Amino acid sequence: MRHNKKFNHLGRTKAHREAMLSNMATSLILHKRISTTLAKAKALRVYVEPIITRSKEDTSHSRRMVFAELQSKEAVKELFGEVSTKVANRPGGYTRILRTGYRLGDNAEMCIIELVDYNENMLGAEAKSTATRRTRRSRKSTATAKTEENQAEA
Q1: How far apart (Å, rounded) are the C-alpha atoms in residues 105 and 144?
Q2: Where is this region: Disordered (predicted)?
Q3: Which of 11, 21, 68, 147 is close enough to 47 for a disulfide, judged by CB 3.0 to 4.6 Å?
């Protein structure tokens, strides 16, 4: 029985799973978006979001803690330099998972996981969608429409 065992083991040993998630987190930080399976993306989101939260405070202790997870100097430098400034005022939810369909070979559900603040297309769409308001009513109010109808009858 697997009572109280909530995370996905992904069919790997502990060492293999940790190494894979570390490598995927490094790639996500360096490239800002990666394509993977949905199960791996969900596991990666749980793994990488606390690391990004830790990068908001630029101290030597937090750098060492992040380096212990990622094992990549380039990723730590990128994370504490560029990424942490973009996510400084965001209270969480640094990643977005976009489903892309199914893989041809084994029908695994594929997706793209990306850092939220780095997709200019989505940022432009959010700004555009909040700027326009649409209503089902006509432009004229019902009171002015009735007075115009009364004048036309007379």
Answers
A1: 64
A2: 128-154
A3: 21
Looking at residue 83, its amino acid is V
Q: pLDDT for 100-140, tens place per residue?
A: 999 999 999 999 999 999 988 877 776 665 556 667 776 65
pTM: 0.78
Contact call for residues 64 and 86 (beta carbons, < 8 A): no
> What one-character-per-residue DSSP string does the chain give?
--TT--S--TTS-HHHHHHHHHHHHHHHHHHSEEEEEHHHHHHHHHHHHHHHHHTTS--HHHHHHHHHHH--HHHHHHIIIIIHHHTTT--S--EEEEEEEE-TTT-PEEEEEEEGGG-HHHHHHHHHHHH----SS-SS-HHHHHHHHHHHH-
Domains contained in the chain, CATH given? 14-116 (3.90.1030.10)
Average pLDDT, the chain: 89
- Over residues 49-65, the pLDDT tens digits come to 999 999 999 999 999 99
